[in-house]
Each structure stands twice: as structure tokens, then as C-alpha cells.
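Cross-posting from the modeling subforum.

Setting up a comparison between two proteins and wanted a second pair of eyes on the formatting. Protein 1 (sequence, then C-alpha cells):
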Amino acid sequence: MENNSGIQISKKSFFSSVAILFVLMMAAGILTYVIPAGSFEKILVDGKEAIVPGTFAFSGEGGYPVWRWFTAPVEVLWSSDAVTVISIILFIFIIGGTFCVLDKSGMLKYIMNGLVKRFENSKYKLMAVLVLFFMLFGSVFGIFEELVALVPIVILLSYALGWDSLTGLGMSALAAGFGFAAATLNPFTLGIAQQLAGVPAFSGLPFRIAVFAICYGMLYSFLYHYAHKIEKDPAKSSVYEEDKSQREKYASGAAIETLANEQYLGRTVKIFGTALALVIAYVVCGFFVPALSSVSLPVMAVFFLAGGLIAAKESRYGGRIGKDFVSGVGGIAPSALLILMAMSVKLIISNGGIMDTILYYASEKVSQMGPYAAILMIFGLVLMLNFFVGSGSAKAFLLIPIIAPLAELVGLTGQMACQAFCFGDGFTNMLYPTNPLLMITLGVTVVSYTKWFKWTIGLQLAMLAVNAAILMLAVFIGYGA
């Protein structure tokens, strides 16, 4: 499972994540025997199922068969999420293989050394720009999964700047997740939620820009202080031993190992850079042409693979590209099991018939509350549901038809309900182990889930408190009235 070049998932990280996900799968199965099964009637809206409020009925059937708790990771492959899951797994295999080839060619080290020389006296400015870049993509375009391909590059850059893999993850994946939650124009959460709630599309922008600025400031401050701490004493990093070899390999000032082909590396950088530019351009176009975003992962995989292999061949590094590519796929292959297990939790809950029951009980509570308590209850409901359903758009179709009318009954506006939805949907994407994107992201690093949780939980709790305060403020000022 260990790999000397490219992306790798450590044995410790893999087995600790498997153990956590297995416990969650068993817990989900037990819940199907504790919570009575029931369902709402559903209709198709824009090709997705939406709940019809007021149609809930208990089914009288409960308990998902125990043997199917264990087969759930396989059943995911022919469930309603099968296409998404298979696309994600193939995408990360391509990333793993391509990065191994690029690493063997010496191109990645060449890029890192060049960036360090350019930004050695302004690396915290570079950090600020990177965090803003990833947050904006999540906030404006709703781009999240598609940025996984850039995460390994940022992690290598973090090594080169004297930081660790946690800092690299914070500047990329965590920033994208926080930007996704601090939505300004995000079409997949905010856009759909406002449409279903009957709120003018992308209205209330000044308030959301202020929210984005607050979240950006909190994340950058967190990363700035952490990076300063481990820069002074690298041993204070909780992943000091895990990424020691990679840190030494890409450290500032280290010589390029493949000096024999250095004269070709400048050209390979241009080729691969062009491929990345095409990926980013395609993602941006997908914001304006929804049909493009529906096939974004396969198209991006083609760009990434073609650019990487052509660049590696032009580098003339003397290795066997096919063999190195397969080696890279092998290094990241175990993360496929983590994705299947993460998706299994949702499968067990859904097939066990208790998802709608949870929604029904929660909505009954909301209808009996005042506006301040109700907005926090809606926030909490989305937080809870996000543990089981990672897709923001899918949650919008499940929740908004229920909570929007309830919000009006207790004196809240649709705008407030949408803001609570975005907060509950987004931030914990990079905290819950049931989110496949988080498991993918950790799978391309040496960071175990337990160490990630310990590193981010303080920031997440602070963000939780700030989110609650912002929602209370929204009620106080009558946001959207």
C-alpha cells in the first residue's frame, strides 16, 4: 500500500478510516431497528425526487437485514449513486497514476523549486491567494469534487514552503469546502434551495458576501498561525513522522533528482499547465452551461490524463510510463474501499426506510418553535442529514420543500431558511467521514481521519458558533423580508 513516488495512502491512515466507517455502517444498521420506517410521497422536479409535504405515513416495516449491512459497499455499485461512485473512483485512479508518472519524471519537484524561489519572501501572501482561489471556486461556482486533482500539487507546495500536509489540505480541500458553504452564487446548493423556496435567484448577495469574508478571515487566520508554529518547530506537526520523507524530498533548496532531463522539464511544465488550464476553463464553463457540469469528472479526467502522459513523455525521464502509471494507481487504489464504505451509510439508512422518518420528526419539532429556535433547529437538521447525504443538491430537494413552508409558519423568511441550509450542508463536508470527497482527499495524503478530525475540530466548532450567530442576526434584521 506504500508507494515511493506520487500519491500514496499510508497503511495506518487506511485501516483507521476503515475501522471508523465500519462502526458507522453498523450504527446505521442498528438505527433501522430503533427508528420506525416511513416515507413521504415524492415527485420528480428537474429530474430529481422532491418530497411532497404533508404526505408522510409510517410503513409498519422496519429493520434492514443484518447481512446487508456487510454487503452494502458492494450494493452501492448498482444503487442510484452507482454512476457517481464509479466516476469518482475512476477519477482518483487516473489522478494517482498520472501523479506517479509526473513525480518520477521530476516535473513536480521542478515546479516546486521554481515556486519556492519565486515566493520565498512572500509565502504567506501566496497562502492567502491560494485560500481565496479555492474558496471562490466553491462559493461562486459550486466546485468541490473537481478540485481534488489540484490538492496533491498544493500539498507538495506546502512541503516545499516548509509546512506539512495538513497545511496543504487546509489551503486547498478545506478552503474549497468552506467556500462551498459560504455560498455567494453556488448553483448546486444556494441556487436550487432558493428556487425550491420561491426566493429570487441569487438574491441577498451583500449579506452572503459579508459571510464569505468572515469565513475567509477565520480560515486564513487558522492556517497562518498553524503554519508559523510548525515552521518554527516541524516536530509539532501531528503528521511529522508520516510525511517526513516527502517533506525532505521537496524541501526548499533540494536539488532536482533527475538532473539528466532537466533541460526538458520547462517544456513539460507548459504542457501540463495547459492541461490544468483546460480543466479550470471547463469547470468555469460548466457554471454557465449546466449540461457540461453533468459530465465534468470524465472530461476532466481525460484532460488530466492526456496532459500528464504527454508531459511525462516529453520530459524524457527514462522510465516506463505504463509501469509507473499502474504503480501510481496501486498506491491510491485502497481509497476506493473507503469511498464505497462511506456511501454505504447512506444506502443502509435509505433502504432501511428511516430517512423520511427522521425528516418528519424534525419538521414536527420546528413547527412548534419560535423563529430564533426554529432557525437553529433547521440548521441542526441539515447538519444531521449531511452526515447521511453528501450531495448538496439532493439534500435541497429532500429538505427545502418541507422546511420552507415551516419557516414561513414560524416567522422566518425563505432567504433565512436557504442560508441555514447552506451552512448546514457545507462546512461539515470536510469533517464527516461519511462524505466520500473527504475520504478521497485524505486517501491521497498520509493524513489519517483521526488526525484530520483533531486538527480541524476546533476550527469547525468555532465556525459552528459563528454560523449560529449569523443565523440569529439574520432573524434579528429580518434578512429577506
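Protein 2 (same layout):
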Amino acid sequence: MVLSVVIPTFNRSEILQECLDALFRQDFPTYDYEVIVVDDGSRDETSQLLEKYLKKHRNFRFFHQKNQGQGIARNLGIQHAKGNIIVMIGDDIIVKENFLSEHLRYHLRYAAENEAVLGLTLWHPKLHVTPFMSWLTNGSTVFGRFGGHQFAYEKLEGKDQTDYNFFYTSNISLKRSLLDKYPFDPSFSGYGWEDIELGYRLYLREKLVLYYNKDAIGYHDHVMTESSLEDRMRNIGKSAWVFDKRYPELKKVPDLFKKTVFRILALPFFIRVFKLVNRNFYYYALSKKYFLEGLAEGVHQQ
């Protein structure tokens, strides 16, 4: 077996079906890849859907676990994988027909165990991309340096290699032997950021090299709204303390000066002004408000 695609899922049976259909339309020999779904305690129609695909496709398997987070779910899928290369995507990613071929093409070129491949994740063409969604996937909207927190692919323009900050598990592939040695840290599952933590750990211990293949395309079919920002940034704030304890050199907990700047940006007056004059600054200021609230909650959990 050459490739194993590992997908964690939770209560998204409708979009998961589109995700799986795209994976079974690949221009790649069926006998050379498998698709593994780990159901992270779903309560919708996911079980019935998975049973249906099990009957239709010989290269499909699934596993169930109680709800423990996507990092632990991915670990379970990787444990059962037969492929020499693990491809990780989200359950809301709809891949192009040459997706697996493109990941494999780079692994044949970069065959060392510590060499991994990042693909390109774009909003699905069928979606109306709102200003918030544009901000969320652009890390350079504020002074050309800061921005949203989902993706920052614009920073990779013209590059074929990147670092652990781009360890996006929505579209990435690694040698299974590497993931066998370094699974996702289960203590991060409740906080998020388990992907960046693993990327950094692989960089420290194995000198991870992450190559960027913009032709390995997955479309993100998930409408995101401003209402989702609060939970996301609060979780990042809580997670910052976990990172800081393990990797203080990353300075995920901001110093006094940065906190002061964030507090000023998060003042209701500035948030109202930014909302009127500059949406990118508004979303950024709002994100820092929620981040600071997550920091305040997280310090009591240490």
C-alpha cells in the first residue's frame, strides 16, 4: 500500500459524503491507496454513511471512538494505516482528481523520512467568500504581517518550502514511519493547535522539511462566520499557556508590551471605529479581544 488518507470526523455526515466521493474519483490506482475515517463520537448519520461506503469500496475502512478531539482521532487512524505515506485532510475538504498523485509525486522526489508535503487549501468555488472568510485565510491583511488565523498561503507565493507554522492538517502528507514515532500529543486535543505542536516537535527532533506543492489542491467547503471567531480565539488563548510551558522559546504567551497593545486594540471604542473604517483591522482587533479572554481563562488551568 502506497498511500493512506486519514480523516477525523464529527457530526458532518453531509459534507463527509462529498469528501469521500472526491477521494474515490482519484486518477490513482485503487489498489495503491486506502481511505480511513475515524468517527470522533458523532451523533448524526455518520455511522450509516460509513457502513454504506464500506460496502461500496474495498479500499475503505473506518473506526469509532468516543469524542476526544481530532488529534487522538488521527492517531487512531494512523495506527491502523497500511500505507507508507499518510495523507491528512479534514472532513470538509473536497480534493481535486489529481490530489493523491500530486502528493505522491513530491514524496518520490523528496523521499527522506523527515521530508513532508503541504498541499494548497482554497475556499470551495461554490462558496460566496465573505470579507471575514477572506481575512481568515490571509495572514498579511494588517500592515502586511498580521491577519487571520486559519491559513496564510499568501506568504508562500513563489516558495517551494516552508516551516512548522504551515503544518496544516487540512492538506498535508508525511511518511508513516515518522508519525509512528511521533503521534499527535493527546494533551493538546482539548485546546486545538495540536497540528502546529506536532510540526514544531518534528522540526526540533527530526529537522522536518516541509515542501509546498500548490498543485495538490483541496477545496474547503465550510462557510465560516464572524460568530465562530470567539470560540476559535479563546481556544488559541488557552492553548498559548500549554505551548509556553513546553516551548517557551516560541513566546506564544505575549509579553507585557504586546498584551498592552492588544488591550488597546480590544477597547470597545477602537473596535467600533475599525468596524466602520477598516474590516481587516476590525476582525484583527476582535480576534485579540477574544485571545486575551482565552489567556485569562487559561492561566487558571495551569
